[in-house]
Give the backbone structure.
Amino acid sequence: MSGWSGQVNRAREFLFEDSLLTYDYDLFVIGAGSGGVRASRISSSFGAKVAIAEEYRVGGTCVIRGCVPKKLFVYASHFSDDFEDAKNFGWTVPKAKHDWKTLIRNKDTEIDRLNGIYYTILENNNVELFEARAEILDKNTVKVGDKTFTAKYILIATGGIPIMPDVPGIEHAISSNEAFYLEEMPKRVVIVGGGYIAVEFAGIFNGLGADVIQLYRGEQILRGFDHHVQAMVAQEITKKGVDLRVRSNPAKIEKTANGLLVTLEDGSTIETDAVMYATGRRPNTEGMGLEKVGVELKANGAVIVDELSKTSVDNIYAVGDVTDRIALTPVAIHEGMAFAETVFANKPRAFKHSDVPSAVFSQPPVGSVGLTEAEARAEYGDVDIYKSEFRPMKQTLTLGSERAMVKLIVEPTSDRVLGVHIVGADAGEIIQGIGIALKCGATKEQFDATVGVHPTLAEEIVTMREKYTGE
């Protein structure tokens, strides 16, 4: 016996050797986002009887209130630049007008479609769905609504939720969750935060015509990214019209006859129509009964897991944002697959959280994979830096001032490329292929031996020869 059927049968033998039939389910998953759905359907394919509970909508943060609707909003907001640029390429473009309600309506239609696909995935994979909040009563018992079920294994995949700080008047502010459902687009917006969500929404509202002020209490936006990426994005979004103010933070928010009044910690004030907080997300574990059954949590509520995603309770596992490892949808999916193989296919596999490519859909966008320069120097000491900053070809006719950047970080002894960071059009698309190269341990010599695609931004990755010696 070989192939997939053999693997499934071997998994079944592993499953049922431990009196699994004494439980209602082999696996009960709490949270039907990308990680939970993937784990449930793969586990089912290995012969497990699986149930999943979701208190809101199937699809999770990414599909319902995260990366999917956000990317649609980014597309919408970029047309303002495209219409303006078109004139210099010979197009006669009448003055454009944006209708917010049309965008919201079409976005909702697409989210409903994707939500339906997730329902179908669960149904087609024999995963029983409970649309209610779940609570763990003991290590093998889950309460869903007014019903209780037993399971040999429990998987926590409840994701994260926005952090809304304890600021006077915070009830007048919104998070990214509410931003996707505003009835009217505000003409003036204050974005609080310096992470990728804040930067992306600053670009969205700015591109759609709002006056945007972005406040960040730190020294520079995009904390955790390479310092050249931080500086480049800050420079470019400011040029596009975002009023970026670092070392600034609201002290209170007040409702007025004309909108909202934000008083900053330095005493200055800002009149605005909306205040959106994007100051981070926290793991969604409150009220689940985890501490009661002995599941250890970090101070921020994240579930502590080992390399196989197992918690401090042997039969309870956790994947995705709720573990506070890398909060990215594809990471949650890989963790869910590794969990299923480990527990239900008798093939223990740890997902490696290194060289994970990521993108920020700022304007211009960012693509990053591997180590930042600071991380590389901390781990390896001396490193070689290759950096190129230039005006993209499209800007030569538009007379625009947007600039792009490509940066490589190389370990000199092995010549291995440790990190690649791109700021510029299609950076998110480009970085996917570079992620494969870094996973394969590619060297700078191999990058140099690769023929560039001309004329593109991406060719810069394989044409840089001079080491960068600046700061």
